[in-house]
């Protein structure tokens, strides 16, 4: 009998959640950044090994919500915690906070059976886990197989929900916007990457090269100037890097047509966030 179920990957910002999803799926699906709070929407990865299929949910970091977008981010964590058969709680080896999940569950007023939770210490190439604790290093590819066995043992028996070679259930246009955010984290400084939201306006898969038009929203005029750069140089550099990430995913040449627009203070504006497709609850608990 095969096993199949949903696995939520949760933990504080920067714990290594997206890196683990990519390691399990074997593809660079989720954006990774040395800076915290890079994941905003859950990324779904499908990992099929032998008789077992795990639908992995990479979630935004557990944080105290500061503004409306944070409430939407935490709401996606709530949803993942509620749906998951198994919860992998990543504790950042470089900055451990083993109580983060318990605190988040209390704040969200959720209860979870303890045997659904697998606590995992990350970045063991930088620091050793406490005795008896499962540790992984995505950098050295250490402990991943052991973690997979822990996950597998907790998944219910059942048919696979997805074809064995599927890597995700999300549309390519989602990964287009994520690639743009990833290069924004790599190239733009300070607060600016956090102020960016990308939307695909047009996606012509039948044209050659594949034509993709994307609007990058920023919060202020001054930010628009920085994203464009002198003579448009910064925007071109973002486009070149994003294209390099996307072409392997799309499987061919891409023409990426990037535009920048101001959407004033969008991260704090509940009505705008909802229009952009974020689910913003009125309160978190
Ligand atoms: N040394 C080391 N660094 C790691 C490891 N796993 C992840 N990192 C780094 O830690 C940083 C954060 O990784 P992410 O995967 O983006 O973390 P996250 O938990 O998804 O972060 P948010 O989405 O912002 O909550 C990146 O710079 C990664 O390269 C590891 O095993 N060893
Ligand atoms: Mg992440």
Note the topology.
Layout: E1 3-11, H1 17-25, E2 43-49, E3 52-58, H2 68-83, E4 86-91, H3 100-108, E5 117-121, E6 134-135, H4 144-154, H5 172-187, E7 197-204, E8 210-218, H6 221-228, H7 233-250, E9 254-262, H8 270-275
Parallel strand pairs: 1-3, 1-4, 4-5, 5-6, 8-9
Antiparallel strand pairs: 2-3, 7-8
Bound molecules: guanosine-5'-triphosphate and magnesium ion.
Defining key terms:
six-stranded mixed β-sheet, 285 residues, globular, 8 helices, binds magnesium ion, 33% helix, GMP Synthetase, Chain A, domain 3, Rossmann fold, alpha/beta
Order of helices and strands: EHEEHEHEEHHEEHHEH
Give the total of beta strands.
9
Major sheet attributes: 6 strands, mixed
For the record, what is the CATH homologous superfamily label of the largest domain? P-loop containing nucleotide triphosphate hydrolases
CATH class of the largest domain: Alpha Beta
Query: Do you know the CATH architecture of the largest domain?
Result: 3-Layer(aba) Sandwich
Question: Helicity level, as a percent range?
Answer: 25-40%
Fold-level CATH name of the largest domain: Rossmann fold
Describe this protein's structure.
The chain is an alpha/beta fold and 285 residues long. It is 33% helix and 22% strand. The strands form 2 sheets. A 6-stranded mixed sheet has the order 2-3-1-4-5-6, with helices on both faces. Strands 7-8-9 form a 3-stranded mixed sheet. The protein has 8 helices and 9 strands. The protein folds into 2 domains: 3-154, Rossmann fold, CATH 3.40.50; 172-275, 2-Layer Sandwich (GMP Synthetase, Chain A, domain 3). The longest helix has 18 residues, at 233-250. Helix 5 packs across helix 7. The chain has helices spanning 17-25, 68-83, 100-108, 144-154, 172-187, 221-228, 233-250, 270-275, and strands at 3-11, 43-49, 52-58, 86-91, 117-121, 134-135, 197-204, 210-218, 254-262. A hairpin with a 5-residue loop joins strand 7 (197-204) and strand 8. Bound molecules: guanosine-5'-triphosphate and magnesium ion. Magnesium ion binds at residues 17-18, 30, 38-39, 58.
